[in-house]
Design brief:
about 550 residues, mainly alpha, two-stranded parallel sheet, 23 helices, about 75% helix, globular
Length: about 550
């Protein structure tokens, strides 16, 4: 009788966890489905105008931007990963983590920094004119173009490919590469015929992440005046005040993202690489002379251009404008950013823990549930923003009678003008970041401790708080930090969903840059970079702990 009561109690608790998981998954998926449903609505005149005169340009420039950035980040990321993994050269230990730092600078910050530095009155051309008496053609250094956007995205997004490929190569058996060396093959042949085929799944994963970031971007493309589908969504929404057409554009962009996801799965289909039972990592080959110098110069050039130069320039600008910018208004801006990021991150991590706990029992449904709740990260922020806005406007209309009963009939849009909408967008967008961290933690501790606790009569909730939570603290902390950082530097969602007169660090930085107040944008940019650098440090600490 006692066992039956215990089983019934555990079943009720588990059903509660399931209910919360399904509610959270529904909240995440509903805005995306709402956007997709706009394809089946009757289009208006604005859509026909865009389709006839503008859509071709949007698709063309988006395609060029995505393909060019994907190819160049693959080349840069893979070559750097192979250098720091397979060879030993001066300052290699520094470059192993230093080459990740460009990821700390959001592309939109890099865009306005480089554009100002390379402009006619910028530090580069001014130094050449005043110090060396050399007048350069300003068009040579003009990056406000498609090629400039490709340069920015490549230089500041390649760490996605670099990180994943480096991790993959470090875990490969040395026998693959040493056998090729014993057969007398040259380094280029080994790289082309052995390294690239082995690393293809990792390279594809990194490039897909880069493509998702490019498709989600609004800061770089709008600042450089590039016509992509994402900028078209913003222009349609804020320029034409046509949410319906913006939703239709977002739906087509979502179809492109889904297509990329399917292509990635097809490219990685049946690609399985298993290590030998007794394998050892690759021993780095020491480079000497010209080879060592070339490797050092290559890595140094990328590090300088991708992090050090823009970072130093931002510090110089911050020194000039500190007294003007750092005031009570800026303190409010910082508070609002941390406040909304903290609340959103806490909600993400709570939901991530619940869903990850439910998905520990393998089944077809839990597999789809896990994929379901993590779809937001692969969906551009503009799409999520439109879906969330449409849902909240619908909720306000549905709750209008209640508002009237409460004496708020003169304010029909309560939820749609609140911070709740922005927090919801953040939770949907970055659920994957928190969930993946918790899932890795659960995989590491296994299921034996939970099973032992259940056998002793503890329920699901008690088992989690008494047994699993102490073991998951590291994973939850790393997921919390990574999610918090992503939210702090997110731009499209904040621009579209923030309440009236509510600014975050990212939106204020973009507003300064848009108003050509570049120097004033430096302090908020440096704070975002510092917060982003924190995530890189946490990531390196977690990876080091896992290896140990």
């Amino acid at each position: 009788m006692k066992r039956k009561l215990i089983r019934r109690s555990i079943r009720k608790e588990f059903n509660g966890w399931w209910a919360i998981s399904l509610i959270g998954a529904t909240v995440i998926l509903l805005p995306i489905l709402f956007v997709f449903s706009s394809l089946f609505l009757k289009p208006n005149e604005n859509w026909f105008h865009i389709r006839e005169y503008l859509l071709g340009t949007y698709v063309k420039e988006t395609f060029i931007l995505v393909i060019s950035t994907g190819v160049l980040t693959a080349i840069l990321g893979v070559t750097l990963a192979w250098l720091v993994t397979a060879y030993d050269f001066p300052f290699k230990r520094f470059f192993r983590w230093g080459l990740i730092l460009p990821l700390a600078i959001p592309p939109y910050i890099a865009a306005y920094t480089y554009r100002t530095m390379l402009s006619y009155t910028g530090v580069v051309q001014a130094t050449l004119r005043n110090e060396f008496g050399y007048q350069i053609n300003p068009e040579w250094l003009n990056i406000s173009s498609l090629r400039g956007a490709i340069f920015i995205f490549t230089l500041f997004l390649y760490p996605y490919v670099f990180l994943i490929t480096k991790s993959f190569l470090e875990n490969q058996s040395a026998s693959f590469f040493e056998n090729a060396r014993l057969l007398g093959r040259k380094p280029f042949f080994i790289f082309w015929k052995v390294v690239l085929p082995l690393a293809r799944p990792a390279v594809i994963s990194g490039v897909v992440l880069v493509i998702y970031e490019v498709l989600s971007d609004y800061g770089v493309t709008s600042y450089f005046g590039i016509h992509t589908i994402t900028t078209a969504i913003f222009q349609t929404w804020f320029g034409m005040y046509d949410v319906q057409t913006a939703m239709r554009l977002a739906a087509w962009l979502m179809l492109i993202v889904v297509g990329l996801f399917i292509i990635e799965r097809l490219l990685r289909r049946r690609q399985r690489y298993h290590l030998p039972a007794k394998s050892r990592p690759l021993a780095a080959m020491k480079l000497k002379g010209v080879g060592a110098a070339a490797a050092f110069v290559y890595c140094t050039a990328v590090f300088l251009a991708g992090f050090f130069i823009p970072f130093i320039q931002l510090i110089a600008w911050a020194v000039l404008t500190f007294d003007t910018v750092w005031n009570d208004t800026f303190s409010t801006l910082l508070y609002q950013t941390l406040y909304v990021a903290l609340i959103s991150t806490m909600l993400v991590m709570i939901l991530a823990v619940i869903v990850a706990n439910v998905c520990r029992k393998p089944s077809a449904f839990t597999y789809f549930l896990a994929k379901w709740v993590t779809t937001g990260y692969s969906i551009p922020g503009a799409i999520i923003a439109i879906g969330v806005l449409a849902i909240f406007i619908g909720l306000d209309q549905w709750l209008a009678p209640l508002y009237e009963m409460m004496g708020m009939a003169d304010a029909p849009l309560i939820l749609s003008l609140s911070i709740v909408m922005l927090i919801t967008g953040y939770v949907i967008r970055f659920m994957a970041t928190g969930y993946n961290a918790v899932e890795v933690g659960y995989e590491k501790i296994g299921i034996k401790y939970a099973e032992a606790s259940r056998m002793l009569g503890s329920g699901v909730t008690k088992t989690f708080f008494k047994v699993e939570l102490p073991l998951l603290k590291g994973a939850i902390f790393s997921g919390f930090i990574l999610t918090f950082v992503e939210i702090c530097k997110e731009l499209p969602l904040a621009l579209l969903l923030r309440p009236f007169n509510f600014e975050t660090l990212s939106t204020k930085t973009y507003q300064f840059a848009k108003d050509e107040r570049i120097h004033e944008a430096s302090i908020s940019s440096l704070i975002i970079i510092a917060i982003s650098a924190l995530s890189i440090i946490v990531l390196q600490m977690v990876n080091k702990k896992v290896k140990e």
